[in-house]
Design goal:
Layout: E1 2-3, E2 13-18, E3 36-40, E4 52-55, H1 58-67, E5 75-78, E6 97-99, E7 101-103, H2 111-125, E8 136-138, H3 142-153, E9 155-161, H4 171-174, H5 178-186, H6 189-210, E10 216-223, E11 226-229
Parallel strand pairs: 1-6, 2-3, 2-9, 3-4, 4-5, 5-6, 7-8, 9-10
Antiparallel strand pairs: 10-11
């Protein structure tokens, strides 16, 4: 198996992460040219020229394996057996890159406990003596894993596009991908608020924890053909939990 550690410090400078949110739909198709980019989940269907793809669902991995196997060599998958309750197919040959991963159950884990896990993980990631055995955490979104991957790659600036901090429909993809159409029908508004609140919280923690190591993480978007940056839209007052 290939592990993400082989990408350590391979890409210094700015790395862009593309999410599936509405603002991603305004991105010029030639934006990837000359840039290091990580596309999340179904982004590969719209921007196949991303440098890497980071996947959080096995159905997406299967779709790539069956329909676009040429993408496997630049795919970063969350690794079994670290993923409790998630069984990933093993017939990918040695093509994908894997990351040792364990999700934090945002619906059951108290925010204070999750916060401490993030702090501990970042310290392990940045410690040369411990980083190879680090288990990576996310708070109900593959975005957090992708940010951690970008840090491993050597990014000093991580720019997030389509990783919108508000609970809106993922319009850019729901218009063309049946999976998201069905997902929109299943996810109720309360659960959607929980997921986006956890995304904001975890992203805000990563912004805070990586900053002392010289890593700047920020949200950006296109408007009138110009790339614009937000300071930190991921701050959250409180975390909504499922009662």
């Amino acid at each position: 198996m290939r592990w993400v550690e082989e990408l350590r410090d391979k890409h210094n400078g700015e790395i862009f992460i593309f999410g599936c949110g509405p603002s991603f739909g305004k991105l010029p198709r030639d934006f990837t040219k000359g840039r290091i980019t990580i596309g999340l989940n179904w982004v590969f269907t719209k921007f196949p020229n991303c440098t890497y793809f980071c996947m959080g669902h096995d159905n997406i991995a299967k779709a790539i394996r069956d329909d676009s196997p040429e993408f496997l060599k630049k795919c970063i998958f969350i690794s079994y057996p670290y993923t409790k309750g998630i069984t990933w197919p093993t017939d990918y040959n040695d093509d994908p890159i894997w990351i040792k991963w364990a999700s934090i159950d945002g619906l059951r884990t108290p925010p204070k406990v999750a916060r401490e896990r993030f702090k501990k993980m970042v310290k392990e990631m940045m410690d040369p003596g411990r980083r190879e055995n680090c288990i990576h955490f996310e708070y109900l979104t593959i975005l957090h894993t992708a940010i951690e991957v970008a840090v491993i790659m050597g990014a000093t600036q991580i720019s997030l596009i389509g990783c919108d901090p508000q609970p809106r429909r993922q319009e850019f993809h729901t218009t063309s991908i049946p999976y998201y159409v069905e997902a929109d029908k299943r996810i109720n508004k309360h659960l959607q608020k929980i997921v986006f609140n956890l995304m904001r919280a975890g992203t805000g923690w990563l912004i805070e924890d990586f900053k002392p190591y010289g890593v700047d993480i920020r949200h950006c978007y296109f408007k009138d053909g110009v790339l614009k940056y937000n300071l930190n839209p991921y701050k959250t007052i409180g975390i909504i939990q499922n009662d």
